[in-house]
Model the fold of this input.
Amino acid sequence: MKNCKILVIDDESRMRKLVRDFLTKKEYEVLEASNGEEAMEIFYEDKDIDLLILDVMMPKMDGWEVCREVRKTSRVPIIMLTAKADERDELLGFELGVDEYVTKPFSPKILVARVEAILRRSSVNTDDGIIKVGDITMNKNAHEVFVGDKPIELSFKEFELLAYFIENQGIALSRERILNNVWNYDYFGDARTIDTHVKKLRNKMGERGEYIKTIWGMGYKFEVSKE
Done:
């Protein structure tokens, strides 16, 4: 995870310094932007950015606008920072393709742990990273999924959720277990977030969405029907 490049976007210089200091201790390369417009200029100029840490409330161009703009061309992981603990904001973030959602004030060490976890999940492995199950082919290295010979476009979190299902096929998974493994920390929001992601995933998988079985009152199980 060393030498990954992270863009920190926050209009508060004190907050940027705090995050930068903790990240540089872990040997990450840190770029900074004080508003959304500056962030987009840096993002378009530098094609090697591995992750964004993005504040919601900023002048000129807020975090939501930045997220929308980034998602037009990139699936780079995004961690959203906000001073508001509002469920609607959190759900909007996931709708826009945010991968993690952190409410201020937060522990810098916890933030770094989440950065490490998300970069670890999105890093390229040394093997070919190809998984085949039923009509699903997943290339974890290339971040590609095919249903039959048809590619499907998944957000970073949808991709990770499908990978977790496939790697645990046949096992009944509670919502709590899915949150703790896919989101990789003790998630204190509404567990219905998982239901929203599963619904989108099933829709994108078409008929093969039936591989994801609902276990009422508990969670889900990925199981390929034997014909």
Observations:
- The two ends are 43 Å apart (CA to CA).
- The helical segments are 13-25, 36-45, 63-71, 87-95, 108-122, 156-167, 175-183, 192-205.
